[in-house]
Amino acid sequence: MESSPPPKRTIFFVSDRTGITSETLGQSLLTQFDVEFDQVTLPFVDNPERAKKAIEQINLTAQESQLRPVIFSTVVQDDVRNLLKTANAAFFDFFDQFIAPLELELGVKSSHAIGRSHGVGDRRVYDVRINAMNYALSHDDGQTVRHYEKADVVVVGVSRTGKTPVSIYLALQYGIYAANYPLTEDDLMDGRLPKFLQPFRDKLFGLTIQPDRLQTIRQERRPNSRYSSLAQCQVEIMRAEALFRKEKIPCVNSTTMSIEEMATTILQETRLRRRTF
């Protein structure tokens, strides 16, 4: 009789806002350990009542799994943080780790304001992100090619190389006006940039991918079609990369890169200025 697998350690990301910061920081640390975890995000823990409910859930998990959970917290209120520290868990407080030393170094007390990193605390930054997102959505996949003069970057590549998600990420995270255009078979047969793209050559950034990976992605969309055949993927990638070389368009291979890595590479190579700081 096979024994059941051992229970996984549970990680709680606790935040007084969305939990994005605690997730990002905590997951960055967890990647250093070759261990599987159950991950739970508890957002909007911004008062003692919600902290007590969070503690109940954490303690119940500890009791059921017989393993002490781990808490990554970005809660800024002292009373809420002090309550969370009483949970039957290993407590890692990012604000305790960084805010106090920064206060000491800068000689200034922190505001302890909730939600500064992902709230609507800065209306200008919020509006920039929304406007950039609207631009990315309306200029997605070549559905309109007007107003490319407003674009900070135009991401180009064959179908299913990751143009849409990286454009949206650039908009939402950094306020970058990112359009994207799919290079069609006709575009690639000519071996030249479409005429309407030529004035924006300096804004173009290419995405490429390994043909076998592209085939896998396309198979999910249109299984057993010419579009998803390995031969078609190979031809399109070969011609797209030749076009990028000919036109001196910088490009990145998205095969093993996350959206975040692709976006960061685009920012680094184009030297675009982030608008969300």
Molecular structure report:
This protein has 277 residues and is of the alpha/beta class. The chain has two domains: 9-106, Rossmann fold, CATH 3.40.50; 123-270, Rossmann fold, CATH 3.40.50. The chain is 45% helix and 14% strand. It has ten helices and eight strands. The longest helix has 18 residues, at 48-65. The mean pLDDT is 91.
Write the layout of secondary structure elements.
Layout lengths: L8 E6 L5 H11 L6 E6 L5 H18 L4 E4 L4 H7 L5 E4 H13 L16 H16 L14 E5 L5 H12 L3 E5 L2 H6 L13 E5 L2 H11 L8 H18 L3 E3 L5 H12 L7
Helix pairs in contact: 2-3, 5-6, 6-10, 8-9
Q: Which CATH architecture of the largest domain?
A: 3-Layer(aba) Sandwich
Order of strands across the main sheet: 2-1-3-4
Termini, distance in Å?
58 Å
Helix/strand order, N-terminal first: EHEHEHEHHEHEHEHHEH
Share of residues in strands: 5-15%
Within the CATH hierarchy, at the fold level, what is the topology of the largest domain?
Rossmann fold
Structural class: alpha/beta
The CATH class of the largest domain: Alpha Beta
Count of helical stretches? 10
Task: Count structural domains.
Answer: 2
Unreliable residue stretches = none
Helix percentage:
40-55%
Biggest sheet character: 4 strands, parallel
**Total beta strand runs:** 8
Round the Cα radius of gyration to an integer and report it. Answer: 23 Å
Residue-averaged pLDDT, rounded?
Answer: 91
Q: Tell me the overall shape.
A: globular
